[in-house]
Amino acid sequence: MYTVLVFLLFALGLVLIIKGGDYFVDSAVWIAGVSGIPKFIIGATVVSIATTMPELIVSLMAAVEGKVDIAIGNAIGSVTANTGIILAFSIMLAPFAIRAKDYSLKTFLLIFAVLSLYIFSLTGKLSVIGCIILALIFAIFTYETLKSAKNEQSDERTVISSKKEVKINVIKFIGGCLGIIIGARLLVDNGTVIAQILHVPDSIISVTMIAIGTSLPELITAITAIRKKQGALSAGNIVGANIIDTTLILPVCSLVAGKPLTVPAQALKFDFPVCLIINALIFIPAVMRSKFSRSQGILAFALYIAYVVAIVMFM
Hints:
Blueprint lengths: L1 H34 L3 H13 L1 H12 L3 H26 L2 E2 L2 H20 L5 E2 L1 H24 L11 H35 L4 H6 L1 H19 L3 H27 L3 E2 L2 H25 L1 E2 L1 H21 L1
Antiparallel strand pairs: 1-4, 2-3
Helix pairs in contact: 1-2, 1-7, 1-9, 2-6, 2-10, 3-4, 3-10, 4-9, 4-10, 4-11, 4-12, 5-6, 5-10, 5-11, 6-10, 7-9, 9-10, 11-12
């Protein structure tokens, strides 16, 4: 009976995330149209921050409970999953062109953030200086995103037809956000129990089951955005979510824990380097060529699968 309940709650979480993602993208696109802000900016701010809440909540809970492996594995694992599964799969389904100027600075910030996280953790602990640098990168990201929103307002605005339309979209936005967060929580909690029932080690759960579970809001948002031909919203959401995951979650966890986070050997030898390679492979060529190509998606997805297989077999 307990096992059946676990699977039912897992399924409920999936339903909440799917419907929440659908409502969330609809309302986010409406907000972009009404405000005149480009879809890329909406994707990199409002959507990204809301869909990274599951990662933040899970990592904070883990840090408070002293489960540092889960806090770090969830954060860095989510960044790798966002790019290696979600964006890679999205690109394989529907490659699309981009404006390089929309992604150049954010790509640099993302790569620099992952590299900084790796370098300042080589001693086995995420140093205070490392946390400060990551926080500064987050501040720069936020400033530049808001600056872009102010300077690049579009002339095409959605005309508000009635107060009812406003209420409906506000309800869809809030309801979609809540659905994503609650659904992700159900998926992670019950997915972890399912993994334990199947005797999967905790060290693997943190960078796979939990990381993928907390990345599901980005996946659903990406799939919904592509279905609605909003590729810029999808990619903007991923790069924004990755920067937030890398630069905000771990410094906040360190602050909550009241001490430098101990970084597991697996993260230093395997998780951080793979995260850096996959993100560089996807974003740097895209900025140089002003498009995400299907070959990039296939290569990144294959690398992620190889990474997971290697963890299961050798770690």
